[in-house]
Amino acid sequence: MKKEFLKRKIPAGIAFLFNIISACYIIFFAFLQDGTPFQTVLGLLIPAALLLNIYLVYINCHRDINRALKKWGTTYLIISIAAMILLPAAGFAASSVYEHNITIVIMLAAVYVPFLAVLLIGTAHSALTWQAAPAGTVNVSEAGKNDQAKPASAGKRKTLTVILTVFLLLGFFPAYILLSRYPGLLQVAVSPCALFLAFVSPALAILVLKSYGSISRPFSLAVTTVGLILMIIFMLPLFATPSTLQDIETDFKTTFGDNWRERIDPETVSRLRTTRFSLPGYFLGYFPGNYEYRKNILYYEGSDGTGEGLKLYYDLFRPLPGAQNLPGEGSTIIRIHGGAWVVGDKGASNMLQMNKHLASLGYTVFDIQYGLTDSVDFPQLAVLYNIVDRATGILPNRSVNLSIGAPDHLKGSFTLDDMMNHLGIFTDYLVENADELGASTESVFISGGSAGGHLSTALALAMSSGEYEDLFNPKIQVKGYIPYYPANRATLFLKMIGGADEWIDVENLIRPDSPPCLIFQGTNDGLVTMETARYFKESYAKANNDCCVVIYMPYAAHAADYLFSGYYSQIFLYYMERFMDLHR
Asked: Which of 223, 115, 228 minimizes the C-alpha distance to 167?
């Protein structure tokens, strides 16, 4: 009796309590300030409740219990798996819409409701587990008799077992993607969503056990082991978070001084992100702050040469009229999308949620287009990533399948010179229309990812050098730049596109007085390897410039920041906000 109490009743009671507290916390999460110690403790209860719920369903597989409790356990597993798939999908969807109200509706309907349902079903299951009378283990021989009595049902169960087992084993593919430098776009979905998969794997394994009908055979032991192994693998990024934060703190102190935090006004700090990483924020996302936007504003229309017929637009995000005392007030951010210089676009393809968030902080954000080359096809594009890796001695010998589209009006036989010229045209447009747009030209940051990281680096270094005033408007003062996984060393591919040497090898633009930079780089990026960022930082040091910080994200792949609420995006955004405040 005592063993039964310790094994079942205590976990059931704790799970019931954790589920109730977590459910209440979720209801009020949007209205609470995140980051306090109390909030952190509450945040830890959520994954604890999820793990206890799975454990209770598992131990109930060992017992001959009533059908109602079995059905509640099965229902919990199915709903939790569906929710863990839906939550990141909803997060991506919320990052792809412009409207403030639609974003909120997506988060409430597709995030809060299903997650709350998981906890409420877990609450009911834990309560029923507590109330269930102690019983012996499942009688395998009796189960066999029942199987013989109902051959049709047994056949369906075997088929279901096979299907579920196949899905469970397929989990090793995303696990491989997470652990390796997989050079494909699937890493965008796996890397930031690994923690969701950590709860899917054991739940799926238990469903296999329930369909199999026995937990006392070698097959069941193997299934349980597979579920646990996958869960641990998918939790590795979370386990690595404390050491990641420690490394970043060390780099910031080395680069910006031990007192870098003291240089930020306390009033400003209160309006920035208050925590470096929040587990509730990871699961539930963040409601956007207040902002306004304008879409598809024309800033250039070509009339001759390679630019004939080319139309370039931008989206504008800025704080609401009358908003005051915001951290980014009086500063401008130029955002340049990625896509290997061949595909991509502003808006949903350029981490739209980031634009909305920065505007809510007071920054005036320009999400801009530039001409894309059509002189390189996709087979050649696949070679790009081999070239990037060859430059570092790592050659995966795989092709890359890219399916991101681009508007037809952006395509042309454009070289890097043309692309930089387009960015230069925008700098002139910005200066000429700054007053009307409410933008500052005296405090400008530039940011972009992948190819956009390369172009933002080239633009920031060239403008700050003062050597390209004929190309970029000299009235713009670059205070810093923030490239994400910048593709700076795809030298051979960039030569295929064509352009001046300084756009191909941007390290040549680094000067002792080049502006400070903050780089996001995943350690498992299979498209732009971490050696690229390391080499760039070393180039800064060779130029006697120590104002470059690289934030290395363990297990992070290319575009691992695209899930706005993911651990990678949360951590980097915390330091990005402070980096800009230090230098604006």
From this structure: 223
- What are the boundaries of each domain within the chain? 2-239, 242-583
Which of 564, 484, 573, 569 shows the shortest CA–CA distance to 525?
484
CA distances from 316 to 169, 313, 368, 434 (A): 46, 10, 9, 12
Residues 6+ apart with CB under 8 A from 405: 343, 345
The rounded distance, in Å, linking the Cα atoms of 371 and 358 is: 25
Contact 107, 287 (CB under 8 A): yes
d(C-alpha 102, C-alpha 508), whole Å: 45
Cβ atoms 4, 12 nearer than 8 A: no
Task: Record the tokens describing residue 22, joined without a space.
Answer: 């977590």
Say whether pLDDT at 562 is over 50: yes
Domain covering 242-583 in this structure, CATH number: 3.40.50.1820
Helix axis angle for 67-94 and 100-107, nearest 10°, is 160
pLDDT at position 3, please?
A: 59
Whole-prediction pTM: 0.90
Cβ contacts of 560 within 8 Å, gap of 6 or more: 187, 188, 191, 192, 522, 525, 553, 566, 568, 569
| Cα distance between residue 291 and residue 321, in whole Å | 9
- Tokens at residue 109, please? 């309907």
- State yes or no: pLDDT of 135 exceeds 70: no
